[in-house]
Design a protein that fits this description.
Blueprint: E1 3-6, H1 16-20, E2 26-29, E3 34-37, H2 47-51, E4 57-59, H3 81-90, H4 104-114, E5 127-131, H5 134-146, H6 151-162, E6 174-180, H7 186-202, E7 206-209, H8 211-219, H9 221-228, E8 233-241
Antiparallel strand pairs: 1-4, 2-3, 5-6, 6-8, 7-8
Helix pairs in contact: 4-7, 8-9
Bound molecules: flavin mononucleotide (FMN).
Length: 262
């Protein structure tokens, strides 16, 4: 979405872009008495597009539509604290799935939610691999179990496998792997996946972080490449599917210790 410039016919010279641009790319051209844009250091965050009351920022397409706020930009008009807080509490890591496949459309919607997660410096390198083949997921599970360090866990997991249970991906119909050419995307991928998981929840879907798979795919790049084709950095792995378990209440969690410095 490179910013191309300012539509001077629309610009009212309010200078909101100058105040809000994190990389200070807008300034006043004193000779022409108008706001000008300088693209150096622009991180394409789009704050100028958001903040301009006149919609005067000209930018290239990014296969996305601008979302116009219907009422105001006050988020509480879209979702209440109580609703989002309840969603945070209700969401469980799901480890029992029905075999029903999730529609391509729903998977697309979930991945699309990840797109709007914040990223350091507005870097946008994340990619997502969706594995929906039972055989491939089984193969991945077996390969992961084979290289587990603890022989006790390995044997335990192997005996689960013999009973038809998948102790890594929990027989989920889909596995999503977030990866990137950039190892610094670790935090970005965690936030993006959290967005995706919370969105999945609102579609009646369950998910679970699979740190085991993440660790093994990182430590054994040849397994990763052979089974997923990923040659860059795996940054997060999650399951996705319709839960075959019902939860009746949210468990308590210990408080976060707070310390204040005045
Ligand atoms: C980074 C990370 C890695 C995780 N890896 C696994 C995993 O490999 N297998 C698993 O069953 N759960 C995994 N979990 C899920 C946690 O066990 C779970 O979030 C925690 O027990 C709290 O339960 P809840 O998510 O249902 O509230 C992981 C969670 C996180 C945040």
């Amino acid at each position: 979405m490179p910013i191309i410039g300012i539509d001077i016919k629309k610009c009212s010279n309010c200078q909101a872009c100058i105040k809000d641009c994190p990389t200070r790319n807008f300034s006043i051209d004193d000779s022409q008495k108008k706001v000008v844009f300088n693209e150096s250091n622009c991180i394409l965050c789009g704050h100028c597009i958001s903040v301009c009351p006149e919609n005067a920022i000209i930018h290239e397409d990014m296969e996305d539509e601008i979302l116009e706020f219907e009422l105001s930009q006050d988020s509480s008009t879209y979702i209440s604290f109580e609703s989002i807080h309840k969603l945070f509490r209700v969401k469980r890591s799901v480890r029992q799935y029905s075999s029903e496949k999730v529609s391509e459309e729903s998977i697309k919607r979930i991945i699309n939610s990840m797109r709007y997660a914040p990223t350091g410096g507005n870097m946008r390198n994340l990619k997502c691999l969706v594995i929906s083949s039972k055989e491939r997921i089984n193969h991945l599970t077996d390969s992961i179990i084979n290289v587990l360090e603890s022989s006790d866990t390995r044997e335990l997991f192997k005996s689960s496998r013999e009973k038809g249970y998948d102790p890594i991906f929990y027989n989920a119909p889909h596995v999503l792997i977030i990866y990137s050419k950039n190892p610094w995307d670790t935090r970005n991928s965690t936030i993006a996946m959290t967005y995706g998981m919370l969105s999945a929840e609102t579609l009646g879907l369950g998910s679970c972080w699979i740190g085991y798979a993440h660790g093994i795919l990182t430590d054994f790049p040849h397994i990763c490449k052979d089974l997923t084709g990923i040659e860059t950095y795996v940054l997060g792995v999650m399951t996705l599917g319709y839960p075959s378990v019902k939860y009746f209440r949210a468990p308590p969690r210990p408080p976060i210790q707070v310390r204040e410095i005045n």
